[in-house]
Design the sequence.
């Protein structure tokens, strides 16, 4: 009845009644995508998760970026004239070379030369009065109310802009040290950037002296980051840290001008939730024009974006799929991006099928509907998807999932040399027994690649084929790795002192404890599968399921025995994975990221060498030696490298999966006419079943109406009364 | 009556303190301030110093209830409980753990929640009362029995089924309405609201109709109904003019109390239909271990519930002149 009443109103919607976007947006040149989790932080000094970086990477420009099409991932200038010039100095300040041993390097200077044509997006923070003073520094009540809407500070009239200056990068590096900002990388960067810790102490003292007041960071000295002139920046690091170049492609090093920090420091704006953490200001291809993180975030083309062109170099296969058709075109290629919040996967998936999202991942629930795996193992979209012109892209992510062993545990780690020897054999036996191929097939619909070591594909040091095989778990047979037999695993277990899963001396059964959080790898079906796998060796598995906080606490205290974890690459360098097994990163002893508390002096020695080497055969040799050690010691079961499956509609072009860079929307292109045509075709309202439903409901009511009319005509004795 | 209300307001204070205390204790039994800091700072490269700094910046470095290091009244006031929970009585909701002003968020999200909850409440109430009266009218007949069976069937089905089924049939297959989404403009938001409102009504219709039917059945056997019928009044006049009016008190007990809580929205419906209301705000806060938001929403819920109870008392006097509040 309700719906029937609404139908005439719906008829006013045009041809697509189910269109979730305003009719004014039809046929526009925007990308429509979604987000499930509202971003906690949009401040480039804080944002660290994918749900946050996905937004700000389109708005902010760090000095460097990754080439969109080239693999392996290659750094190129973003706001720079050329790649940074890196100079080394020894302990006494004399110039040194890149080949100088790392322990002799006293400091490293990155000299960065900015382009001269990079301007900020229009923003009221840059708006000036006639006398050159900031126009919106002391917002009155009316202006304060004006910024409270979804348009935020963009609601203020006559926004200004200015050229990017080296001082803006310096200002942002100083913000990393600000105690109120709480940048997650401050602890790590304070060890590298000269004077960053001293600056943090200075700011802290000023905050204590002037509580609640905005602190101007510009006059505060920071020897590690100096603007030589408006277009030249020098960053000085303690010693040598070659991976720093990758950090220059991350949002933490995006420019933040002093006037923007000052603008957002106004109490009137902070009270209205308008902060640099909610309204980013950058030089990138897009700017935020609508921010309702509960339902919709919209980016529009930055009219001041500098001249950047679509790449013309790529991998050989890219040209065949049309990825070079926009060669040398001016970026960005689309006018804007609309992010709609979808907390549940089902509405998101259905909207993608209706054409209201341009691309989509595939949840496990929708996998069979979306994908067909052929007998040869090839993966294609299902016929229904193919009919809609939907295409599938897959890529192995630069991530590793592993089952870690806490090496401080007496059973899987051991204290004495003999205990450690036995524990290593036990870990090797478990590595063979837990069949990742089966796991990937059953639980991931094939969306993963069995792990062979800590370094995933796409990262220097990873090798495929026989040279990349983990010989502890596999043998090479018929041109492919073949998992060692359960018999071999049992033999290892017997050598470890647990024949048939029982202690050789006491006869007590071997019981292993797996700490998990519920959901994901810790759900019941997975655990049942694990128990069955270990049963083959006679080992009993106890699953200790807990919440995320308790799980983290167990890792910190070293009270877990076995656990599942994963790591996504911050940057494409083997150091970013090997450090997870580096002794001085031990979780219990040092509070680092080495949750297995693995400590092998030879591995640590090689790590220090590898870290400072350029990519090449010599580095590969060192990496191979490190891989041999960690495969033999088996502190982790190298579980799998996850695969990303993404579906894209036929109108979305220049789309290439990138596991490291997030600023990729500027390269993508939309055939807006095709999208509009297909949306109309796919979303014609179907009225007859609805009409049947309404008639059915009325038919249900009809007996009641008849009975009522019949009763109304009777007197108290049940006789029909004349005239009624 | 004024004295009655003042007394009820006075009684509300210890209740609210108790609710705050229980919320506080339950939350911190499960989450320590360190856990909250880790949740906000993420799991990558979090140092113990960063955690300490996060706690200090938000006042979570203080003791929970008693500050032995302080002197005098500050032993109680310089604690997390007093600082975070007691300020709510002054209307200070403070900031969420990610730094957003909570009162601003509540103001923004109240509208979307009401946009769903109010029509659901009003249409649902009208529909279920009408259906219950209809079943009572045909009591003992096959129409009544069929209606009760349908009501039991509707009660037995999870509301999630109605949501997913409604989205699939009306938005995916028939393509009559958007699957999810929301617009703040009330003139264009209506087509996002039809489906969630309809689904919410259908999901609640079974239980409410049976409940009201029971109430009306009790009334329909009373003497005044027989008298009314003997006077020759039509069935409609008897049902709507007499039975409904006399059955209102038990209905009001269940209905008026929820009116203020309509602001708080629905957790499930808002989540599935992408409505940016207070229901989804609460769910997000629980998932993110955002104590500031959780305590604010629990406090707000308690206040609104207490207001609902007072309004219920008031409504009794309106429908039954014999009742006086003293």
Sequence:
């Amino acid at each position: 009845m309700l719906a029937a009443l609404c139908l005439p109103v719906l008829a006013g919607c045009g041809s697509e009644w189910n269109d979730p976007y305003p009719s004014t947006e039809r046929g526009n040149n925007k990308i429509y995508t979604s987000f499930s989790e509202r971003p906690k932080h949009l401040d480039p000094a804080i944002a660290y998760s994918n749900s946050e970086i996905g937004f700000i990477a389109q708005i902010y420009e760090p000095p460097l970026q990754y080439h969109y099409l080239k693999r392996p991932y290659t750094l190129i200038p973003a706001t720079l004239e050329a790649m940074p010039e890196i100079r080394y100095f020894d302990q006494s300040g004399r110039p040194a070379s890149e080949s100088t041993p790392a322990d002799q390097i006293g400091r490293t200077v990155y000299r960065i030369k900015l382009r001269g044509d990079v301007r900020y997006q229009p923003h009221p923070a840059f708006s000036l009065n006639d006398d050159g003073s900031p126009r919106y520094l002391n917002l009155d009540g009316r202006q304060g109310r004006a910024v409270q809407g979804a348009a935020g500070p963009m609601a203020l009239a006559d926004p200004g802009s200015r050229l990017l200056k080296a001082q803006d990068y310096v200002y942002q590096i100083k913000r990393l040290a600000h105690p109120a900002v709480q940048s997650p990388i401050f602890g790590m960067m304070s060890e590298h950037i000269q004077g960053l810790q001293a600056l943090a102490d200075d700011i802290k003292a000023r905050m204590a002296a002037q509580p609640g007041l905005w602190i101007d960071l510009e006059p505060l000295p920071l020897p590690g980051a100096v603007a030589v002139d408006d277009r030249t920046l020098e960053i000085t690091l303690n010693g040598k840290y070659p991976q720093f170049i990758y950090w220059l492609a991350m949002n933490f090093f995006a420019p933040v001008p002093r006037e923007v920090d000052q603008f957002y420091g106004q109490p009137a704006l902070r009270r209205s939730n308008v902060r640099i953490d909610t309204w980013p200001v950058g030089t990138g291809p897009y700017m935020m024009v609508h921010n309702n993180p509960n339902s919709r975030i919209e980016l529009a083309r930055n009219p001041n974006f500098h001249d950047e062109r679509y790449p013309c170099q790529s991998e050989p296969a890219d040209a065949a799929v049309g990825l070079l058709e926009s060669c040398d075109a001016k970026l960005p290629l689309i006018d804007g991006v609309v992010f709609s919040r979808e907390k549940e996967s089902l509405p998101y998936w259905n909207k993608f099928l209706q054409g209201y999202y341009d691309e989509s991942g595939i949840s496990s629930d929708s996998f069979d509907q979306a994908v067909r795996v052929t007998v040869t193992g090839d993966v294609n979209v299902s016929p229904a998807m193919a009919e809609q012109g939907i295409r599938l892209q897959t890529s192995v992510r630069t991530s590793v999932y592993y089952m870690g062993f806490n090496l401080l545990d007496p059973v899987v780690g051991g204290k004495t040399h003999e205990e450690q020897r036995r524990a290593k054999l036990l870990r090797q036996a478990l590595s063979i027994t837990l069949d990742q191929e089966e796991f990937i097939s059953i639980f991931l619909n094939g969306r993963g690649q069995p792990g062979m070591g800590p370094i995933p594909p796409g990262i220097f040091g990873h090798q495929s084929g026989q040279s990349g095989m983990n010989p502890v778990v596999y043998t090479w047979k018929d041109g492919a790795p073949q998992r060692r037999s359960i018999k071999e695993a049992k033999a290892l277990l017997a050598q470890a002192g647990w024949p048939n899963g029982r202690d050789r001396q006491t006869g007590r059964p071997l019981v292993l404890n797996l700490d998990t959080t519920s959901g994901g790898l810790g759900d019941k079906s997975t655990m049942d599968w694990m128990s069955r796998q270990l049963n083959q060796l006679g080992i009993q598995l106890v699953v200790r399921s807990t919440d995320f906080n308790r799980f983290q606490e167990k890792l910190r205290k070293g009270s877990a025995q076995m656990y599942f974890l994963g790591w996504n690459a911050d940057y494409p360098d083997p150091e970013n994975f090997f450090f997870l097994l580096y002794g001085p990163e031990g979780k219990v002893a040092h509070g680092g990221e080495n949750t297995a508390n693995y400590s092998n002096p030879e591995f640590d020695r090689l790590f220090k060498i590898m870290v400072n080497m350029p990519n090449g055969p010599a580095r590969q040799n060192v990496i191979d030696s490190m891989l041999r050690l960690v495969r033999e010691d088996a502190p982790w079961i190298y579980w799998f490298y996850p695969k990303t499956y993404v579906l894209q509609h036929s109108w979305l072009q220049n789309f290439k999966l990138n596991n490291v860079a997030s600023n990729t929307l500027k390269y993508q292109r939309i055939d807006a006419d095709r999208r509009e045509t297909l949306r109309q075709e796919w979303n014609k309202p179907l009225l007859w079943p609805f009409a049947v439903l309404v008639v059915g409901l009325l038919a249900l009511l009809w007996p009641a109406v008849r009975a009522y009319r019949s009763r109304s005509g009777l007197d108290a004795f049940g006789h029909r009364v004349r005239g009624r | 009556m004024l004295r009655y209300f003042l007394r009820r307001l006075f009684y509300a204070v210890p209740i609210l303190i108790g609710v705050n205390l229980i919320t506080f204790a339950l939350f911190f039994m499960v989450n320590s301030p360190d856990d909250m800091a880790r949740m906000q700072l993420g799991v990558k490269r979090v140092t113990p110093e960063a955690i300490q700094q996060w706690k200090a910046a938000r006042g979570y470095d203080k003791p929970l209830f008693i500050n032995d290091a302080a002197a005098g009244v500050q032993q109680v006031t310089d604690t997390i409980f007093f600082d975070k929970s007691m300020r709510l009585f002054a209307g200070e909701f403070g900031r969420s753990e990610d730094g957003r002003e909570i009162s601003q968020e509540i103001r923004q999200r109240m509208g979307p929640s009401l946009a769903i909850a109010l029509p659901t409440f009003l249409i649902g109430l009208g529909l279920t009362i009408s259906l219950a009266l209809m079943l009572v009218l045909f009591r003992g007949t096959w129409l009544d029995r069929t209606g009760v069976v349908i009501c039991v069937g509707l009660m037995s089905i999870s509301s999630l089924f109605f949501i997913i089924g409604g989205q699939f049939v009306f938005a995916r297959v028939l393509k009559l309405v958007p699957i999810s989404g929301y617009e703040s403009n009330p003139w264009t938001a209506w087509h996002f609201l039809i489906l969630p409102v309809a689904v919410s009504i259908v999901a609640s219709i079974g239980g409410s109709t049976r409940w009201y039917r029971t109430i009306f059945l009790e009334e329909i056997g009373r003497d005044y109904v027989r008298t009314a019928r003997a006077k020759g009044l039509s069935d409609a006049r008897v049902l709507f003019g007499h039975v409904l009016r006399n059955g209102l008190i038990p209905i009001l007990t269940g209905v008026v109390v929820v009116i203020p809580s309509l602001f708080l929205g629905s957790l499930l419906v808002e989540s599935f239909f992408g409505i940016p209301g207070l229901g989804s705000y609460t769910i997000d806060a629980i998932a993110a271990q955002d104590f500031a938001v959780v305590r604010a929403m629990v406090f707000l819920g308690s206040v609104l519930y207490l207001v609902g109870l007072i309004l219920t008392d008031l409504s009794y006097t309106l429908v039954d002149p014999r009742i006086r509040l003293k």
In short: The two ends of chain A are 29 Å apart (CA to CA). Chain A has 24 helices and 25 strands. Chain A touches chain B through 70 residues (CB under 8 Å). The mean pLDDT of chain A is 92.
